[in-house]
Specification:
Elements: E1 13-20, E2 30-36, E3 57-62, E4 65-70, H1 75-88, E5 94-98, H2 106-116, E6 121-125, H3 130-136, E7 142-146, H4 150-153, H5 159-169, E8 173-180, H6 186-199, E9 205-209, H7 221-234, E10 239-241, H8 246-249
Parallel strand pairs: 1-3, 2-5, 5-6, 6-7, 7-8, 8-9, 9-10
Antiparallel strand pairs: 1-2, 3-4
Helix pairs in contact: 1-2, 2-3, 3-5, 5-6, 6-7
Bound molecules: iron/sulfur cluster.
Residues 39, 41-43, 46, 48, 99-101, 126 line the site of iron/sulfur cluster.
Amino acid sequence: MNGSGTATRTGVLSEVFCTFQGEGPHVGKRHLFVRLGGCSVGCRFCDTPDALRPGQGYAVRIPGLEVVRPNPIEPEAAVALVRDAVSRVCALHAVSVTGGEPLEQVDFLEPFLAGLAPLPVLLETAGTLPDALARVIDSVAIVSMDFKLPSVAHTAPSLDAHRRFLRLARRREVYVKVVVNDRLDAAEWDDAVRLLLDEAPDVPFIVQPETRRNGSLATTFSALAALADRATRLGLTDVRVIPQVHKFLGAP
Ligand code: SF4
């Protein structure tokens, strides 16, 4: 809301760039990333610290255009920027709208995503804002939903919000991504798996090992195998271990 009490439609971006999707089941596909600025979730392992607070400007790095522009941006201008970027890139699989937490800017996101049709949009989100998701779900093709484990992320428990979020996200292609490390609490793991069994037992469940700043993984192969096997034994049908591939490529 702005000072007059009405919702502001302008948005704050962090960066717009072309790369390969580095996480989840669409890894390796050519994506245009639109990263929104600002996130209040506070994950300990966050690897986008520059996007946690709204910045004064955003960087555009697409073929033939490298520039920094001022925030905020109107949704119509953001749509024009994406369409220009898409026209410069061949064989784009999707526009990945990420953050920060994009759903924290839902008043901007709603007209922005609606304006992108029919481009396929992949929404990357922490999966804790179901009311905001309800406003944009019809403009989203793929939902990449995080599942935050407090013992790993050092965030507050969010099982109820994740449950409501997943019920809505099921209307689209959705996968659930959970970051793990060697401090994971086994009871939290079982709670997360059981929630998925209740709500969406067939969606891809992506176990993503935390990548440390030095590039090493914050857990072991045997621990990852044990987690995946336990989730499968409990009843999930599509469990995959996929690290952050873009970090191996030196990509943003
Ligand atoms: S939700 Fe994403 S952007 Fe926000 S703190 Fe967690 S990892 Fe960082």
